[in-house]
Structures are given as structure tokens and as C-alpha cells.
Amino acid sequence: MRLDSDAHAFDAHAAAERAHRHAVEIDPLRQDGAGETLAHADLPPPRKRPFLVAVLALGSALGLGGWHHWQTYQASLETQAEAVDFVPTVRTLSATEDDRPTSLTLPGQTEAFDHADIFARATGYIAERRVDIGSRVKKGDLLVRIAAPDLDQQARQAEAQLGQFQAQLAVARADVEQAKANVTLANATDARTTTLAGQGWASKQNADQTRAGMLTATAALTAADAKVKVAEANITAQQATVDRLRTLTTFENVVAPFDGVVTARMVDVGDLVHADSGGGTPLFSIDSTDVLRVTVQVPQSAAVGIHDGVQARVRVAQMPDHVFDGTVSRSSVALRSSVRTLDTEVDVKNPGGILRPGLYVTVTFAVPRTHPRVTVPSEALIFDATGTRVAVVQPDDTVQLRPITIARDLGTRLELRTGLKTGETVVLNPPATLRDGDRVDPKGDSAVTAATAKLPEQASAE
Q1: Residue 121: how many CA atoms within 13 Å on its side-chain side?
Q2: Which residues of the chain fall below pLDDT 50?
Q3: Which positions ≥6 away from 108 have C-beta within 8 Å?
Q4: Planar angle of CA 424, 425, 428, nearest 5 degrees
Q5: Model-level pTM greater than 0.85?
Q6: pLDDT at residue 9 in the model
Q7: What's the CA gap between 318 and 326, in Å, rounded?
């Protein structure tokens, strides 16, 4: 127990010594005659030290935050000043006046210049067929031969009857000659008897009889002349019958009416065909393809500029490397009231037979302009709640947002009806923040100028 008390006393003494040394290190000036009791009395309480550290840290944070806030405020002032004084650099292009023909592209369809459905004019059987679908024929080439024995016999009978009528005419003419001779003899006898009766050598009865004979002979001559006319009329009628039958026999050989290609065949050898069956099934269909008609329905908006002689180009989607030139050859003049379109035909030469009837094509017309229009690139257009406008650069490098009226949209370019004059400079792709009266730094766009120089080819290809 004694040892434990001594140990505790030793530990208390050591702690007192450490406290004294700490007090001396904190404030050595206060080491006066007061001794250990004064040093221990001036030390701050240990619990106030974290509070001082927190106050110092808070003050440093507030100072650093104020410095950053001041820097941000100064940067915002500089940015605001730059935004106020900023002059954007914009691409510009001068508006041009286009007096070239207007390009108008419409769908169309190719048709044969001449089309014929061949029907039979002779009743009989197909004895021979020389062409088929796709055969190219010349005018007068034999297509089929029809065997028509009934028609041939009718023609022979008509020719025989014509011979009979011709023989009857010869007999009638001979009767006329005989009647003329009888009239001559009767006239001479009457004159002689009349003279003798006047001299008393013949009776009056004889004179009357000779006069009656003369009148009878004259009547017989008139009747003979009438028979001749009847015979001639019969011959004329019979000749017409013979000619008709001969013509029908020529229809036994069906020939091509013009140069072309056989597009349809509905008969074969041995088929029975009937004459004058225009409402039935034709034997063949033939199209002329050296020149094709391209039919186009032109809407009312473009019908005024379409007239005979307007140049046109025809393209087929399946033949992108071929362009077929043609001209407007005819139109209906009047528009269809139901659809307000003008029936227009373009003649296209087709010597090689590349084009075929019935193709769907596109036709591009070069419609002459009645008056030129101002054109600008489509990228100059501003479309917002106020309508369609363009930014026009003024001489003092400020912009004016000017409303425009679009006449035609050509895709890359716009034809304007009102709003701009030739030579005025417009801004391309104007910034969204551009306002009326803003100052800009205009720079010409050479790329758009080069594209404008190629515009005629692009317009013809549309």
C-alpha cells in the first residue's frame, strides 16, 4: 500500500512538472515571481481552441468566395460588352434577274403516232398467216390470206351477168338501127303516097295507111332507143356489183396500211373470220413507232405558256442515259373543265425504236417567260411568325428584314414575285439572332455564285 501511494505521488509530481513547462513555453514573459500558480491561472481553457480554428476557416472561405464572385461579375461585364459590340460575319449574294425559259416537268405517256386495228372485209377461213407479234412490216406487206370461195363465185356470177347485159345492149342497139331504117322507109313511102294521092293516082286510104306506118316506125325507133338506155343502165349497175365483188376479193389478202410493228395478233391459220365485223375482234393491231406522240396533261397554272413549237425533253426512268428531244405539236386549246388540264402532245422522233408506246415518261418543257423574275438562293429565306422574309444588306452594312412573295420554289432557288430588286444583296443562312437594323460584316459567297452559273443545266434536268 505504501508503494502504491508513493507511485501516485510520483505521477502527480510529474504531471505538475509537464504543466509548468508548457506554461513557460506559451508565455515565458509571464515567468515572474508568481511561480507556477500564476502560469496555470493565465492558460485559456482547452475547449476554446476549435472555435478559433473554425472562425479562421470561415473567414478564409468568405474571402475566397467574394474574390471568385468579383471575378465572375467582371467576366460577365466583359461578355456583355462583347455581345453589344459584336458584328457577325455573314455570307451574302446579290439577287439576280432570270429571263431564261421556265423549266416545267410533268408526267406523260408515249403513244404510237399511228395505230390501226385490222378487221376482215371478206368472210372466209385464214389460209395463210405471214406475221406475228413484234413483226415489223412495210406498207402493203401481206399479213394474212383469207380463203373465201363463196365470194369468188359471187364475183364470177356478177361478171357473167355483166356479159349478158352487154349482149342485151348490143341487141338493143341493133334494134335501134333497124328501127331507124324502118323510119326512113316509112317516111319515103308516106311522101310518095301523099304525092300520088294529091294527083289522084292513089286513094286517100293508101295515103293514110302510109302515114300511120311512118308514125309506127317512129314509135318503134323511140322504143328501141329506150331499150338501149335500159341495157346501158343495167350494165352500169352490174358493173358496180362486179367492181364491189372484185374489191372484196382483194380483201382476201390483208395488207399493212402503213410502216409499223404488229403489237397484237388474234387469229391463226384455219380461223373463221367474218366480213364487216368492226365491232368484233380485230385480226391484228399495228403501231407506227418511227415518231411517237407523248401525251401530257398540263395544269391550268402552266397552260398559258404552252403552245405549238415549245421545246421539250423526254426522259424514261429505266433509260437514265437517254434524253429525247421533241416539240409541242398540238394541244386541245380548251382545258378539260373536270380537271382543269390542257391535253398536249409532244412529237418525238424514234428512228431506232428505243422508245415504245405505253411508257411512263417525264417531260420537261422550256416555257418562255412573259417577264423576268428576281431569283435568290433558298438558303436566304427566313420563315417565322411574321411570314417569309429575307435579310437585305444596306449600304451602311446594316440589315433590313424585308417581306417577300414567292412565285416559284425551284428547290435550290426561289423565284420572287415581289420584295426584291435586281442587284440587292441578301444574307445567306442568316443567324437566328439577326434583327432588323443589326450591323453585319458581309462576305460574298463564291460557291453560290458558281452554282448559279450552272443553274440552266439544273433547271433543264428537273
Answers
A1: 14
A2: 1-14, 20, 22-41, 447-448, 450-462
A3: 294, 295, 296, 314, 346, 360, 361, 362, 363
A4: 140
A5: no
A6: 43
A7: 19
CA dist 175 to 181, 220, 222, 236, 376, Å? 10, 9, 10, 20, 100
How far apart, in whole angstroms, are the C-alpha atoms of residue 42 and residue 364? 109
Q: Report the amino acid identity of residue 306.
A: I
Assigned C-alpha cell, 39: 502560469
d(CA 96, CA 91): 16
Q: What pLDDT is recorded for position 10?
A: 41
- Write out pLDDT tens, residues 139-175: 999 999 999 988 889 889 999 998 988 898 888 888 8
Determine the pLDDT at residue 242. 92
